[in-house]
Amino acid sequence: MDRRIADRNILDVFCEEFCAIIDRYCKYIVVSGFVAIASGRTRGTEDIDIIIEKVDIGTFRDLFQELHKKGFECMQSDKAEEAYDYLKDNTSIRFTKPNQPLPEMEVKFAKDVLDQYQLEQRVKLEITGLKVWFSDINSNIAFKEELLKSPKDMEDAHHLRVVYQELIDEGKIKVIKDLIRRYRL
Amino acid sequence: MRERESHKEQIERWAQFVRQNPDGWKKIHTKFINAIFEKHQQFINKMLETPLGKEKLDKLYGRKNKAGY
Which of the four, A102, A114, A181, B37, has the lowest number of CB atoms within 10 Å? Predict the structure, then answer.
């Protein structure tokens, strides 16, 4: 599918620019709402959630500096060491473009087997037309239906179930839901 | 309840449209998403023109790094 650049919206451009930088330093996945929005769901969002594998401070410093150089500002601090402390405490850090508080990229370290599983199962989704890694559809549906559960999340899950019906694996979704109950609830 | 059902049907109709029009949905969707952010940017610009606009925006978006905008 050849997607023209003119078809890329503000979120697409923001996400692709950010992920292209992250990709040079570590494995990552885009998760949650933007998976549904990039797959056609018509709703707004303020942030794009991304999980990255744990990296050491040296790698993170290089990554942080490159993000800064390419115009992504960290909302919490302009010091890599301080931002790294947030991530180590399993707290997200957020990046925006100068003078544009939205959209923002919300970054977290992978914190448990569930995040690790999603990083290993990551996929590119052709229909999105985006060159970024997403967590797989079954994981997204499981998280939305078992953990997040708001009306918006349930609608996202329903949208994903329709758009990707050939990728739906109920057995897999059940296994992930079991893991969510074990590790997150 | 009926409203929720009707909303669910709308979600399903649009999801089917995306599925059946892999080259057609994106243009409509892009206009919709961009409109949200363009509207928001107009709000930011207006706020920045007001006396306490920047402080309000920092508070609104929880910005701790004051070196930014």
Answer: A181
